[in-house]
Specification:
Elements (H helix, E strand, L loop, with lengths): L2 H15 L18 E5 L5 H9 L3 E5 L3 H8 L10 H6 L2 E4 L10 E4 L14 H11 L7 E4 L7 H14 L8 E4 L18 E5 L2 H12 L6 E3 L3 H31 L4 H8 L21 H11 L5 H27 L8 E5 L14 H11 L3 E5 L24 E6 L4 H7 L7 E9 L14 E4 L1
Helix pairs in contact: 5-6, 8-10, 8-11, 11-12
């Protein structure tokens, strides 16, 4: 028997052993009038989850950030994902007091799982949340993790902490499951309630309870999988697949830039084939696609395995800000611009369109690199306030205050940017200036023949 087979055997035995005879199928029916749902972590994932459940259940929304809690109590979502009207209607008790979670029958964990500076999983928030929850759970509470982790983290890291803090036994006294989040910031179509949902549990009772809970609120399909590890793996695979496909497009753009071929035209031509996948080159940041592959790489490395394709994709996508800056510098040298007199307008610094989320923003990384060269830069981003960039030396301007610059750099395709700048492009760039259109949002017919254009 191989070591991998032994692991599967142990997991199977563990699940069977923990089937509690004290619970029957009747107790898996969820009573909306009696059961209370707690959500720990009220950020881009947790808050939409809490609001989604509040349509049917009483919800306790917990976060350690007192400022955030006070804002939510005033029906203000600092992320901009939930409207004031939606918060007014939501049946949610917002609190930063952990003892309020003791009344919850279900506790959903949606805390950040970022990376350390050396790109290893940082489970600090998850570990602290698990210890805190463990001090508050009562018998038969069900804890559901939605935070992205590597396969095995819920059972190997979280459950032992819950047991230690509670002095209870998982699978007997309380139950644990995993349901990967699929929140897409700024996306009003693929919402928590409309998305399909994967659910898993440490045993059949946990799975049945979690499935029944989510079926109450999810309008999409709810899919059961055989183990927590499968659900954890599915989450990192979803984003790793996108990362690899975007990396291919980015590598093609590096090649075609050297060959002086328009990448966008190549992709348009290739897309005429029926099975061509519509990916495009671009910046990969944020808290999902730019992070999750490292969790899978870490887990593979711990098993003595390399992940060369996934690792190479990450290297390519992380390199793109430097490539864009280098390409601009080449143009500045070619056309004999003086860096000391140069001025650049940058449009967008969040990690993606239509969200104020700055986490792991590659657009922001480009600005940092250019400022490090002493170049004068003004930034317009309708989703970012001076409070969001407090402590930085970024010059954030209103669109009215922008003056025609030597270079315009379009990095984020906010709807506001597309609407307000495409038709009036030359209010922001000199006619003989350099236009770097990273997102390919400026139509060719809007561009003057004297303008130098560079795209990925």
């Amino acid at each position: 028997m191989t070591s991998k087979q032994r692991k599967i055997h142990v997991t199977s035995s563990y699940r069977e052993k923990n089937l509690s005879p004290s619970l029957n199928n009747e107790q898996h029916k969820i009573d909306r009038n009696k059961h209370i749902v707690g959500v720990v972590g009220l950020g881009y994932v947790g808050l939409p989850v809490a609001v989604g459940f509040s349509d049917k259940f009483k919800v306790i929304g917990f976060d350690i950030d007192d400022h955030k809690i006070k804002s939510l109590q005033k029906n203000i979502d600092m992320t901009g994902e939930i409207t004031e009207e939606e918060l007014k209607k939501a049946n949610i008790h917002f609190t930063s007091k952990s003892n309020h979670l003791s009344s919850c029958d279900f506790i959903i964990v949606a805390v950040p799982t970022p990376l350390t500076p050396d790109k290893k999983p940082d489970l600090t928030f998850l570990e602290k949340a698990s210890m805190m929850i463990g001090t508050q759970i009562k018998p038969q509470t069900t804890i559901i993790y939605e935070s992205t982790v590597f396969p095995g983290a819920t059972e190997d890291v979280c459950i032992p902490l819950l047991e230690k803090a509670s002095s209870l036994t998982a699978g007997v006294d309380f139950h644990v499951g995993y349901s990967p989040e699929r929140i897409n910031p700024g996306d009003r179509e693929h919402t928590f309630k409309q998305n399909n949902k994967i659910v898993s549990g440490q045993n059949e009772i946990a799975l049945s309870k979690i499935f029944s809970l989510y079926k109450q609120v999810i309008e999409g399909e709810v899919f059961k999988v055989s183990s927590i590890k499968v659900a954890e793996a599915a989450k990192v695979v979803e984003n790793t697949q996108r990362d690899i496909n975007i990396a291919l497009m980015n590598e093609l753009s590096l090649i075609f830039d050297t060959l002086n071929i328009d990448t966008q035209e190549v992709l348009q031509a290739a897309s005429t084939k029926w099975n061509f996948l519509p990916f495009t080159p671009g910046l990969v940041g944020g808290h999902c696609i730019g992070v999750d592959p490292y969790y899978l790489i870490y887990r593979a490395n711990n098993e003595g395995l390399n992940a060369p394709l996934i690792s190479a994709a990450r290297e390519i996508n992380d390199y793109m800000p430097s490539f864009i800056v280098s390409s601009l510098l080449n143009l500045l040298v070619k056309y004999k611009y003086n860096l000391k007199e140069l001025h650049i307008n940058v449009f967008g610094i969040t990690f993606k369109e239509n969200t104020p989320d700055l986490r792991n923003s590659k657009a922001l990384e480009i600005v940092d690199q250019l400022q490090g060269l002493g170049i004068s830069i003004d930034v317009y981003d309708p989703f970012v306030t001076t409070d969001d960039i407090h402590g930085s030396n970024i010059s954030l301007k209103s669109i009215q205050d922008l003056k025609p610059a030597d270079v315009c750099l379009y990095t984020v395709a906010h709807e506001d940017i597309k609407k307000n700048t495409i038709s009036s492009l030359y209010s922001f760039i000199k006619r003989d200036g350099i236009l770097l259109d990273i997102k390919g949002i400026i139509p060719q017919e809007n561009i003057h023949e004297d303008t130098i254009v560079w795209r990925l």
